[in-house]
Amino acid sequence: MVCMRMMIGRYIQLVLIFSIIHAISFGQGQVTAGIGLGYMQYEGDLGGRSSRLPDLLTNTTSQPSQTGSISLSYYPFSFAGIRMQGTLGQVQGADSLLSRITAAPLLKKTRNLHFKSAIREVSMLIEIHPLLLPYRGGSKKGKVSPYLLAGAGLFGYNPRALYMDPNGNLSWIDLRPLRTEGQGMAAYPGIAAYKTIAYNFQAGAGIRWKISSRIAAGVEILFRKTSTDHLDDVSGQFIDNNAIDDFFGPGTLLAAQAKQMSNNPAYNNGGSYITGFEPGNLRGSARVKDYYYTSTLFIHYNFARSTSLMNPMRSTSCPTF
């Protein structure tokens, strides 16, 4: 299934690249390249927002990380285009950053899980500029153009966490090989290891300012709903430490790392489970998939300017962003 999604993604990219080359060669449409810098942030099982109104615009348990994007867009019409985009960034979250301690946050703070993961994404987006939609006399034009975005992407991720060894030394380790929720263990036959490649559905909006006939600047927010609930390595239930020993071997480094990463309260309690964090209790929730979003400032460069667009609405003007 993953191979099929990758093949489809590559096919769409090739079609877009061919269309852009065709457009440049025959003077049709408009082609732009963009580069963007901004921030990426995660939402999922770790941490969480408070119910207080001032906290709705921020999430202190998921600190934003820097992100960068490059894009290539083709506009066959003055009001719509197709964008191919590559994005690099990082997502992270931690229960320990919860500040308001009520019943639900107290459980999460006691759970005390954290993670970070690099994100490498390729996406295809449709871009619509409502103010440039054709009407009787043509299309509205101006230096400022708000727009909407929708599409899908394929991304790679790899959740990691800080492991503290018996001497107190800290090091970042990969979480997937530790099978923190029993993936692949004999005691949990129905739980399979998750993939580190997933797809997402994207939606967002932005606004673009025309600086010159070639240069435009813009800012946009783009949300991604992912197909995975393991972006943070948290989705299911706490598991038995005996199953970890059976899989990795008693006294091994991997067993010690898995016990600390899978059930931090029990690990800090000398290996003894505490109420609410026993094997079979919920460690996370699989009901809602993880998601992440970016806020980005873009600079766009216009390669081709043409008066011959494939526009069924008889508008011969090029996009003016």
Q: What's this model, at a glance?
A:
By secondary structure, the protein is of the alpha+beta class. It contains 5 helices and 12 strands. 18% of the residues lie in helices and 37% in strands.
Give a structural overview.
The protein has about 325 residues and is of the alpha+beta class. It has helices at about 1-25, 105-110, 240-250, 255-260, 265-270, and strands at about 30-45, 65-75, 80-95, 115-130, 135, 140, 145-155, 160-165, 170-175, 195-210, 215-225, 290-300. The strands form three sheets. It has an eight-stranded antiparallel beta barrel with strand order 1-2-3-4-7-10-11-12. The chain has a two-stranded antiparallel sheet with strand order 5-6. The longest helix is centred in the N-terminal third of the chain and has 25 residues, at about 1-25.
